[in-house]
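Hello,

Following up on my earlier ticket. Below are the two sequence lines again, exactly as submitted.
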Amino acid sequence: MSFKRKTLAASIALALAVPLGAQAADSAELAQIREQIKQMKESYEVRIQSLEKRLQQAEEKAVLSAEEKVLSRPSDAQNSGPSTQHSALASSAFNPEISLILSGTYANLSQDPAHYRIGGFLPNGGEIGPGQRGFSLGESELVVAANIDPHLRGQFTLAVTPEDTVAVEEAFVQSLGLGNGFTLKGGRFYSGVGYLNERHAHTWDFADAPLAYQAFFGGQFKDEGVQLKWVAPTDLFVELGAEVGRGSNFPASNRAKNGSGSATLFAHLGGDVGASHSWRAGLSLMRTSPQNRAYDDIDSTGAGVTNSFSGNSRLEIADLVWKWSPNGNPVYTNFKLQGEYFRRHEDGDLTYDVNTANNTDRYASAQSGWYLQGVYQFMPRWRMGLRTERLDSGAASIGLIDNGTLVAADLPAFAAYKPSKNSLMFDYSPSEFSRFRLQFAQDKSRPEVTDNQMFLQYKMSLGAHGAHKY
Amino acid sequence: MNLAKPMKWLSGGLLALLSIPAFAALNILACEPEWGALAQELGGDKVSVYNATNALQDPHRVEAKPSLMARARGADVLVCTGAELEVGWLPILLRQTGNPKIQPGQPGYFEAAHYVRMLEIPTRLDRAEGDVHPGGNPHIQTDPRNITLVAEALAKRLAEIDVANADYYRQRHIQFAARWKTAIANWEKLAAPLKGIPVVVQHKGFPYLENWLGLKQVAALEPKPGVEPSSTYLSGLLGQLQRQPAKMVIRAAYNDARASEWLTERAKIPAVALPFSVGGSERAKDLFGLFDDTVQKLLAALK
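Thanks for your patience. The regenerated structure is below:
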């Protein structure tokens, strides 16, 4: 027993002594081990943290790329936001904005549109008159636009007519941020004169262009040339513009000459009156020098003749637009008042019957016209509008009649007349991109008859969300 | 005649004229009033801010008015939401005023939506889905944590553009960020009872607010963004609300009251017009007031 007890005591003592002894002997080594463990722990923590972080990032990336699969985000200057790769979209990412306008009309006209003319105003070969009777397709318009590089933007508008002809409506390049308020544009484009001229037909508030536009421009004035615009550094909007062009369209005429055949100057002023009102007023001047601008007429014997004019044509336009909406929020109700006044002086030489008789003498005329329209959105999506318009052909001074070579009946297109027209329209726009319109008009463009017109129309916009001018 | 004196005066005058721009404030054109207010907080008296729209206007539907053209002409910095919110009018301002400073890609062109995590990014881009924005829902200003992110980016941008006052913008940002952090904590504490509360929205303009406060959107008065509801849709909505009641119907200050009031009458839940932006209510005089009032209006409707 004593041995046993001794052994037990010894082993207890040993057991107690060993750690004490070890501590005493190897405290330095232990500290080292502890340090190593601590380091290992820290290193694992860092590695775990980094793994966790990487996992989290991977998850976020997966979510982002899933969410943004369809999105191609334009790059901001210093994009610290989520950036994702769009390798699948790389080839199409630079595709331009594309939009398509579809339109169609049902027209009910009391008079045959084949005999349409604007009394007292020369036939100009443009898009005049109410169009066809019955169902007809309107112009389908394809717009392709994009920035070309940091300095230029290009736009191309193709119009396909219901007669299956294709026309380049606009094709121009325009400077981006030229500085000091200047913008330069070149190519074929709608002139900046007047208010409605620059606006494409699908943005008009009525189914057709005002008579003044039809009589003085044959629809809208577009030309091939250059335009320089300048916006003044003032809080009041002041914009000045000038254009020189080929002068290929009425009231100019295509000439095989160097230099330019048309020149315009325009000034726009605009601003706000309180939060609810805004306005823009403009004054435009246009000078063209048509050469052998031909038109067809029927002389006093009933024979068809071709006459022509060479000389100067000066046009002045004054325009005003006033818009109202409660607090400037046009979504629910709004009102737009718009009017333009045109005055044109032409003087030069008129040649009667260019093919046979070929008599030439002085010619001078002063013609004018205006329209005034109001469009009221009385509830969301629904609008109604009224337009009233008058033209005054004035009495032309024609040398060939004054000197007795011809009688007035030989030049019936010059018989003085004051055309007038009133239109009433309702439209409904289910969304920003679609519009249905009903329009009634009483058109007294022809001296002999009154044309009662009814139009049912749709205008649709597909593709890129367009930004529209004021 | 001695020309030295007049010449001295003349050159002095010319120098004075030339040096005016150096003292002029940075001209900021803000597309929406919340960014105008933020730019003012960060820029103090070194900036002059003009808001292109007010809180009672739908920023998606305003026009490129002549007054905005004039302001875009002279702007040094453009601060907008982006994400196609201003797609109907901003491109015209950029293209027609010839101002190189604010063209996309330039430091003067700032899009807030780039600095926040976008919600409701559509997986299907089709106009049949209504007025969807490919970049996600653009109404990011209803979450104050987004304001924090945008403030940081905007302060950096201002410092980059106006180097002479870089320290000033940095200082103001530090102060603003601290005040804003405290304010957020306070709003979150106040708004705790709103967590999980079912709401109806008039227009899908509040995903960021819902995300922040934990509100649960159970229905929208518009079946699809920007699409007018049909009577069938509305009666279906009433039926749904009977089974799954909501506590309130919320709308932005610029939304018409009629649709919400129609629902208030039938579903017997209060309609709440939130300021949505600075100036959208009497109390939303600045960014702090905007969220003070938003939280308070939501809480009041809960009672």
